[in-house]
Amino acid sequence: MKFLMKTLVPVAAAALFVGAIPGADAATTQSGFNVTVNLTGLCKINSISDVAFSYTSFQTSASTATGGAVSVSCTNSLGYTLSLDSTSGTVSGLNYTIGLSGTTGTGSGSAQSFTITGNMPANQSGTCATAGGACTGTDATHTLTVTY
Amino acid sequence: MSTASNHCPVTGTQHEVGLAAGMVGARRTRDMNRSALIRMLARKATATMGHALVLVLSGWALTTYAAGTTAPLRVTVHLDTGVAPPSPELCTVIGAFAASVTVSCPADQVRFVTHPPLADQPASSETNVEAGIVTSWRKIQVGGKDYLEMTVRW
C-alpha cells in the first residue's frame, strides 16, 4: 500500500497537471499575408455654376461676375490642375474675360472649391432687341478641364 | 627601339628604322586615340540617344497616363438697356394715333369717360358718334382712380 501511494500519487498528479494545460499538446504555425489594392486615382467635377454678369449699357465701371462656383473631388494625394479652354468671350454683344481662383490642387478625398471669376469692362453698349427693357444672354461655349 | 639603339651602332638605316618605328608607334598612338575617340563618341552618342529615348518615353508616359475630366461652363448676362420699361399701371397705345386707336390698359384699373366729373356714373347710350382723330391722351386721377382722357379732333 505504501508502495502504491508512493508510485501512483505522483503519476496521477502529473497526469492531472498535464491535463490542466489546455491544448498543451497542440502545435501552431503562423504566416503573414498582405492585402493589396490597385487604386486608380480619379478626379470628378461635382458641380459648376454659371458665371453671371449684370450689366447696364454704357455703365461707367466694370462689372464683376457672380457665381462660377466649382466643386472638384479627387483621390487623396492626387495632384491635379484646372484650366479653361478660353478666357474671353462675348455675350449679348458684351466682351468679357474669365479666370480661375486657382489652377492647381491636391486631392483630399473631399470636395474642394474653386471659383471662376469674370470681368466685363465698362462703356460697352451690348445688344438687346427688346425696346425699353432688358435682355438675358447666355454663352455656353466654355469648358472647364481638370487634368490629373 | 631603345634596346636596338643601346646595342647597335646607330646607323642611318637603323635611325631611319627607329624613326620609322617611332612613326609607326605614333601612328598606332593616333590610331589608338582615334579608336578611343570613336569609342568615346559612340558611347556619348549612345548615352545621348538613351537620354533622348528616356525623354521620349517620359513624354509618352506623361501623355498616356494624364487623365482629365471636363464640364461645360455657361456665362450669362442680364443686360439692362438703361431705358425704363413702361409701367404696368399705364395704358399703352398700340400703333400710331389715327382715326382708330387701340389702347391697351391693365384690366380694372382705368375707366374711359368723356368727362371726368361723371366718373363712377354708369355709361348711358351714345349721344354722338362721329369719326375723329385722337390727338393726345393723358391719364388722370379722379377720386383715387385712374382715368384716361383723350382729345379727339373731328
Q: Quick one: overall form of chain B?
A: rod-shaped
Question: What is the string of SSEs of chain A from the N terminus onward?
Answer: HEEEEEEEEEEE
Class from secondary-structure proportions of chain B: alpha+beta
End-to-end Cα distance of chain A, whole Å, is 91 Å
**SS-based class of chain A:** mainly beta
SSE order of chain B, one letter for each helix or strand: HHEEEEEE
Main beta sheet strand tally, sense and closure of chain A? 6 strands, antiparallel
Mean pLDDT of chain A, as a whole number? 87
Number of helices of chain A: 1
Radius of gyration of chain B: 56 Å
Distance between the amino and carboxyl termini of chain B = 143 Å
How do the strands line up in the largest sheet of chain B?
A: 4-6-5
Strand content of chain A: 35-45%
Rounded to an integer in angstroms, the radius of gyration calculated over CA atoms of chain A is 38 Å
- Main β-sheet description of chain B: 3 strands, mixed
Strand runs of chain A, count: 11
Rounded mean pLDDT of chain B is 61
Number of domains of chain B: 2
User: What is the count of DSSP helices of chain B, taking H or I runs of 4+ residues?
Assistant: 2
Q: Low-confidence segments of chain A, ≥5 residues, pLDDT <50?
A: none
Write the layout of secondary structure elements.
The complex is a heterodimer of chains A (148) and B (154).
Chain A: H1 2-20, E1 43-48, E2 51-56, E3 63-64, E4 66-67, E5 69-74, E6 79-84, E7 88-91, E8 94-100, E9 104-106, E10 111-120, E11 134-147
Antiparallel strand pairs in A: 1-5, 2-4, 3-10, 5-10, 6-9, 6-11, 7-8, 8-10
Chain B: H1 2-7, H2 12-65, E1 68-80, E2 92-94, E3 102-104, E4 110-112, E5 133-142, E6 145-153
Parallel strand pairs in B: 4-6
Antiparallel strand pairs in B: 2-3, 5-6
Could you list some keywords that capture this structure?
heterodimer; A: 148 residues; mainly beta; 11 strands; B: 154 residues; alpha+beta; two-stranded antiparallel sheet; 39% helix; rod-shaped
